[in-house]
Amino acid sequence: MFDNLDPLLHSQLRLAIMSLLIGVEEAEFNFLKEKTGATAGNLSVQLRKLADANYLNIEKTYRDNYPLTLCRITPDGVAAFENYVETLKQYIGKE
Amino acid sequence: MEKEFNYKQSLQVIEEMITQAKYRPGKTDGIITLLWGYLVMVAALLHWFLAVVAGVDYAPSAWLLMLVGAVATAVFSRRVGRQKRVKTYVDNLIGQVWLAFGISFAVLFFTLQPAHEHFLPAVMLLYGGAMWVHGSLIKFRPYRAGAVACWLGSALAFFLVPEQQLLVLAGTVVLGYIVPGHLLYAKTTKADV
Asked: Is A35 part of the contact surface with chain B (CB cutoff 8 Å)?
């Protein structure tokens, strides 16, 4: 039924991550963790999948000597998200 | 999290997450407006008092208070920036608006110069412009009303002598900065409870 939907985005957690990042410049790992309610391990795995597809960019840095992970959506990620939403609209139109 | 979900749930996730990441002004946004509002008001009134009542030559030194504002803003913004776990486009744009204000102010300061009779009205015009865009970005009407107060104050000040302009400036920052700053602070404090 949802063959045309990007399988990478058609996952609750990955879609939630992309939806959070689509409207912001950058977000910290802990912000994504809090908003999605995911565990740190699961979130890391899904972020890595999205980064491997070049949908987002992960920057590992330090703040006050503590590790800090910043995530930003890439132009490819924006295009993929927009395609996903367009496909969803078609499904709604068919209903 | 990897379970199948339908398009209605997809839409729900998108909507919920976009709402979660939407920019919301925090307590700190109102504090910086209040800080500058009170500092400019005190400096303008002090300048007027020293120039008109005390009649001293060093009256313009009242504006050294602005250095306090600059240092406090830098320290405060740095601290707030470190606490923010997400950076929105609105955050960035607000910073750009005030940077543009700062640069425009510096150009006026070094070209027209503060002693010029049109310096204060021109600064009030800039205040109004920055407040209008800031208010539009955060969708907070009192900031835009404050901008209108700055523009009206500017228009009035163009017809006055510098000593009178100082009083207009003090009144303008009350309406243009202090009142909107308190309203934003009250709104965000209430929202945080």
From this structure: yes
Contact B26, B188 (CB under 8 A): yes
Residues of A in contact with B89 (CB under 8 A): 23-25
A38/B contact by beta carbon, under 8 A: yes
pLDDT tens digits, B107-123: 999 998 888 999 999 99
CA distance B36 to B18: 33
Q: Which long-range contacts (C-beta less than 8 Å, at least 24 apart) are formed by B42-46?
A: B44/B166, B44/B167, B44/B169, B44/B170, B44/B173, B45/B166, B45/B167, B45/B170
pLDDT tens-digit map of B108-161: 999 988 889 999 999 999 999 999 999 999 999 999 999 999 999 999 999 999
ipTM, interface predicted TM-score of the complex = 0.85
Residue from A50, A26, A57, A66 nearest B86 by CA = A26
Q: What is the DSSP letter of A55?
A: S
